[in-house]
Amino acid sequence: MNPVEYWYSDDSFIRAEAELRRSIGQYASRNRYIYLGLTQQRPEDRFAQHQRKWAAGHEWDRMIVIYHARTFTLMQTVEDRLIRYAQQQIAEGKYDCVLINDKDSQRPQPAKNPDGFWVYILVQR
Fold first, then answer.
1. In the beta sheet, which residues pair with residue 117?
2. Average pLDDT for 109-125
3. Apex 105 CA angle, 58 and 30, nearest 5
4. pTM of this structure
5. Residue 54 — pLDDT band, cuts 50, 70, 90?
6. What is the mean pLDDT of residues 73-89?
7. Non-local CB neighbours of 95 within 8 Å, separated by 6+ positions
8. Based on the number of CB atoms within 10 Å of its own CB, is 24 exposed (0-12), middle (13-18) or buried (19 or more)?
9. Once rounded to an integer, what is the mean pLDDT over residues 85-114?
10. The pLDDT of residue 9 is above 80
11. What span, in angstroms and rounded, lies between the C-alpha atoms of 97 and 120?
12. CA distances from 92 to 24, 54, 89 (A)
């Protein structure tokens, strides 16, 4: 299995939001840990960076690219809204997983030559 899967919408976020929330629910219910992120790099390159960042035995099983935004600002908005949604669902006991997102991470800056504006989920069983 390829560690990076492309299951994404490039529809407007207003039309895609319900579908994206359902996808988070599906991955949250089947995995112990999830991470919601964004990238302007090739998703395969970003996944490799995540794998190097995490300690041995705590690498991610796969990355699922869930949204292709048309702009940098939309990419940030989608990620922020989906993280807040997942946090709320976990707080209410609807998801039995751990959401791992860096609370102190720096906000990304627009890339000079982006490979796209992608929102993704990392999962670990």
1. 69
2. 94
3. 40
4. 0.91
5. confident
6. 96
7. 25, 28, 29, 86, 89
8. buried
9. 87
10. yes
11. 17
12. 15, 28, 5
Instruction: Compute the residue count for the chain.
Output: 125
Which two structure tokens, joined as six digits, stand for 114? 């982006």
- Concatenated DSSP letters of the chain: --SEEEEEE-S-HHHHHHHHHHHHHHHHHH-SEEEEEEESS-HHHHHHHHHHHSPTT---SEEEEEEEESSHHHHHHHHHHHHHHHHHHHHTTS--SEE---TTPPPP---SS-S-EEEEEEEE-
Q: Two tokens at 7?
A: 């299951």
Six-digit token pair at 118? 């992608």
Look at residue 102 in the predicted model and tell me its pLDDT.
67
Rg (CA), the chain: 14
d(CA 40, CA 20): 19
In the sheet where 4-9 sits, what is the strand order? 4-9, 62-69, 117-124, 33-39, 98-99
Locate 95 and state its tokens.
């998801």
Cα separation, 26 vs 21, whole angstroms: 9
